[in-house]
């Protein structure tokens, strides 16, 4: 991390979101190609406000631990930094501490001692009201002017950081940076900008790589899934008399697995894929929205009819039990 100019910087982004999973061979391949830094987004607002409002994570601790283990072991061998943005899905202080706790457990298990920096982005409503009163708060369309009452009603408020806090942490000697809410691009752009790369190409490349892994990976395990459409031939299917395209289509993904944790993990992996993948013939990302937040709902155990059989018996009463009350006459 010296001041010598460099000609190129290679950024390895294995997935669109920490906890989505990947083949560790992907990381090894990236390191072999000369990765200078590993960066990955740890959150999103795509699935609605539930995760910010409740300061809970969309991903499971087991999935995050698995991914961090893959990143930390590779980064330690290569001597390169790891940057995680928007920890805990929404980047709250609790989310940063949650990921930091998992990171500490993983490093202890792997015998690693990587310098860690935590960057908190949660905001104090009282401080924001001072900025508001001083005229330093401005709305982004389509929102209108902010009222102090709105700030007071929020359970959690995070500021979306750019690359600057991440660069400061790297310059301070951190090899692992766990950041609160950050723009997706800042996570990937921070290290190249620090190394003197030109801003325009850096931000453009950062936007490409932050979810680029979705185009090159195909995760999945032992599970079954079913995609159901609502609003487009949902009932009559091929018998639908109307041939025109619908105004909107609701898509529901049903996942079944041997246990709830696996089914939930599959649904979480499919979540960004369903949100961002374009339809055939589209050269742009379509406008998708989740019907609820959180986007996935655990159904618990699923049941199906599997018996419809006959038992041969000599007595038609032998399979049944009759209990008579004390006042019942025989």
How does this structure look, described?
The protein has 330 residues and is of the alpha/beta class. 34% of the residues lie in helices and 12% in strands. The chain contains 10 helices and 7 strands. The strands form 2 sheets. It has a 5-stranded parallel β-sheet, with helices on both faces. The chain has a two-stranded antiparallel ribbon with strand order 6-7. Strand 1, helix 1 (24-32) and strand 2 form a beta-alpha-beta unit. Helix 3 packs across helix 4 (93-110), helix 7 packs across helix 8 and helix 8 crosses helix 9 (199-209). The longest helix has 18 residues, at 61-78. It is globular, with a radius of gyration of 26 Å. 32% of the residues are buried.
Q: How is the secondary structure organized here?
A:
Elements: E1 11-12, H1 24-32, E2 37-43, H2 50-54, H3 61-78, E3 82-89, H4 93-110, E4 116-119, H5 125-133, H6 148-153, H7 164-171, E5 176-179, H8 184-194, H9 199-209, E6 224-230, E7 250-256, H10 260-276
Parallel strand pairs: 1-2, 2-3, 3-5, 4-5
Antiparallel strand pairs: 6-7
Helix pairs in contact: 1-3, 3-4, 7-8, 8-9
